[in-house]
Amino acid sequence: MSKGLSKVPRTDRQFTIRPLLNSDIGAVARIHCDAFPSSAFSCFGEDVLREYYSWQMKSLPKLVGYVATEGDRVCGFAYCADTFLSPVPFLTRSPRVIGAAFLSRPSILFDRRISKMAAYAARSIVKRISVRKTPVETSKTPTVASFWVEALAVERGAQGHGVGATLMRHCVETGFSQGFGTVYLAVEPMNHRAIALYEKLGWSRVTSNGRWNGRMKLTRHSGTALETAC
């Protein structure tokens, strides 16, 4: 995989993939709001999203990211790392940023997207507290590292041209080149369009106790369509 510029193949428009830069954060926030209008972070607005993605980049020292551009415009992004980073720490450690968003947009207090995020954060915090209180036997078996596609989004005007599949291929190849045999991602279970794309590219759902919460995996040599997808 080229670490420099690369072209999205077989499309009627010219898109280029390049490494993600710190200066792209504003575009990343804009694309998130455009691609995921139903997400709670989109409800907070681009200012909070810029803070969120900046926090992620700082919190993941081994993060590798890519953006898709059409001319000078960034129209898609993806990044991956060897750690899954939950948004809960950002929410609990950024009261000033979140508070400012509520003050500037008081109507979001009644938005169902915010209620859903608050419930998720509460469950995660309770789970962490219970784990800390529960005695855990130490094990000499080292924790198995895993590789994650942390985020991927393409603005709506650029969707349908192979940009998302190409960004995904760059992330997957990054994980495989680092020696990981399996790459994971987490998707909103109601995001049917994204799920259909991932399954077309060879991803499979990871269930727990017969339930699926949005986690998917792609294993090397699994017959993935990523190599030929455009």
Low-confidence stretches: 124-143
Structural class: alpha+beta
For the secondary structure, the number of strands is 8
- What would you call the shape? globular
CATH architecture: 3-Layer(aba) Sandwich
Describe the structure.
The protein is α+β, with helices and mostly antiparallel strands. The chain has a single domain, classed as Gcn5-related N-acetyltransferase (GNAT) (Aminopeptidase). The protein has eight helices and eight strands, in the order E-E-H-H-H-E-E-H-H-H-E-H-E-H-E-E. An eight-stranded mixed beta sheet has the order 1-2-3-4-5-6-8-7. A hairpin with an 8-residue loop joins strand 1 and strand 2 (16-19). Helix 1 crosses helix 3 (46-59). It starts with 5 loop residues before the first strand and ends in an 11-residue tail after the last strand. Mean pLDDT is 81; it is low at 124-143.
Looking at this protein, list some descriptive labels:
alpha+beta; 230 residues; 8 helices; 8 strands; Aminopeptidase
